[in-house]
């Protein structure tokens, strides 16, 4: 079982994500945050999760702010962005700031789940 931390401000979306991750990828959410500061505080004060699923627009602050302040590559965090606003500019920015992938909630949910399903498989 792998662990995930969800940075998502919509409770219904968190529930959907939790169920979807558990059903297709053996990933269990271990916590969540609705704001940039909650996410940063949690990630700095808890054991590192195997995956961070990050929305870009939060109740307070942004997912970009989380990426900037945490520098995922430096900390060894695997961050996948899942947002309703995955424009090409935001995609590039997220990738440059250390996200490993960016998916749009509206039209790439299946791709997101497939990425999560395969991300912990041993390489052949």
Automatic annotation (TrEMBL):
<dbReference type="GO" id="GO:0000160">
    <property type="term" value="P:phosphorelay signal transduction system"/>
</dbReference>
<dbReference type="Pfam" id="PF00072">
    <property type="entry name" value="Response_reg"/>
</dbReference>
<feature type="modified residue" description="4-aspartylphosphate">
    <location>
        <position position="55"/>
    </location>
</feature>
<keyword id="KW-0597">Phosphoprotein</keyword>
<dbReference type="InterPro" id="IPR001789">
    <property type="entry name" value="Sig_transdc_resp-reg_receiver"/>
</dbReference>
<feature type="domain" description="Response regulatory">
    <location>
        <begin position="3"/>
        <end position="120"/>
    </location>
</feature>
<protein>
    <submittedName>
        <fullName>Response regulator</fullName>
    </submittedName>
</protein>
<dbReference type="InterPro" id="IPR051015">
    <property type="entry name" value="EvgA-like"/>
</dbReference>
<dbReference type="InterPro" id="IPR011006">
    <property type="entry name" value="CheY-like_superfamily"/>
</dbReference>
């Amino acid at each position: 079982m792998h662990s995930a931390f969800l940075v998502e401000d919509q409770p219904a979306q968190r529930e959907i994500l939790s169920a979807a991750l558990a059903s297709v990828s053996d990933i269990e959410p271990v916590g969540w945050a609705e704001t940039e500061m909650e996410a940063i505080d949690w990630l700095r004060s808890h054991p590192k999760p195997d995956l961070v699923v990050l929305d870009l627009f939060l109740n307070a602050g942004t997912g970009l702010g989380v990426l900037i302040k945490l520098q995922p590559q430096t900390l060894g965090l695997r961050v996948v962005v899942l947002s309703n606003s995955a424009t090409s500019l935001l995609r590039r920015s997220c990738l440059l700031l250390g996200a490993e992938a960016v998916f749009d909630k509206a039209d790439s949910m299946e791709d997101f789940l497939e990425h999560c399903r395969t991300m912990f498989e041993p390489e052949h």
